[in-house]
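Exercise 7.
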Amino acid sequence: MSYCIIGAGMAGLAAARRVLEIGAQVTIFERMDQLGGTWIYTDEVGVDRYGLPVHTSMYRGLRTNLPKEVMGYPDFPIPAQRDSYIVSDDILSFLRLYADRYHIKDCIKFEHHVVQVHPTDGERWIVEVENLADHQKEQHVFDYLFICNGHYHTPNVPTVNGSEIFQGQQLHSHDYRCTEHYKDKAVLVIGAGPSGMDIALELAKTARRVTISHHMERLTFPFPSNLSQQSDVSMLTETGAKFTNGSEESFDVVLYCTGFRYNFPFLGADCGIEVQDNHVQPLYKHCININHPTMAFIGLPFYVCAAQMMDLQVRFCLAYLTGRQHLPPAHEMLEDAAQEFEDRLQRGYKKRHAHMMGPEQGRYYDDLAKTAQIETIPLVMTKLHNESSQRFVDDLIHFRKDVFRIVDDEYFEYVKE
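Solution. The predicted structure, written as tokens, is:
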């Protein structure tokens, strides 16, 4: 059987390793010239040398906001070093080690851009690809398709009144690369999620002043003297912004840290997948395409132990694709997805949170494992992920000084100085 994998980032590598393990044929199409996906740094913004949108959102000097102890694959941890919060280059090196260990590189066709995907009558997949180096288009047919193109590549830019008249610079965090470009400037950061907070703290080192606009409860940890917070933006003006609390400030730069959208431009309408308000549907257990069950998405859920979850999702899908387990009828899978989504709404989630896991991620892992009768993720991973996420909220300035050690499948401990 032949498997096509779109993307050679963390998810694509997880998929390739497990497919190779069962002895099947694997072809990975990767539009960049190296593996690593979102962990690759480039100074490029906008479009690349082939005229395609730059894929990566990586900025210079990024350190992980999760401890390395929860970022490895189940049986392939990130190599030991004292720090728990490590630089992006170390993650990229780790992914290269993983690819070497499982002989994945030979399966990757670099600088191959997937143009479109369509199903055949027999539930196989026609994949049209452009070889970017020689501008030639090719068509391939595969039995199974794993979509692993990530979800930190297509900016979600909100509509803000007055954005067309603001005379300063406006950009999304996708195009942010380093603090030097903002030296001595007044910067408005819209959004106080992990990236917004991290970038705002970095900018405060060189910018004249930085203001974070958000609608969460007021942040209480100590800020640098030139970093302040504001309510939501009501409108931009020619020289700055007005806020919903009635105040007004001037700015040179507006930086939107407002997240990303799931985007699969290569999927034809006949693939049976829709994205509505960032809800990818209809999917069974957030990964199998219910309309065409020989297609699966790896890595959609967020606020998770990513590599651990991706490996689990791949093993879940392969239990069915190899025939070891049998999928329920389509109507039962649709009912399961609808019930899970309704449960989220009842708990206060919005539609755009359809794939958000967070503190409840363990329920998802255990459900996948129980459903497909496979091994779940050790409880310690969920516990440490949740603990470190809370530390991020409680002490944004210092949380990266924490060092953790996994004790066993259930417990972790703080490493003292």
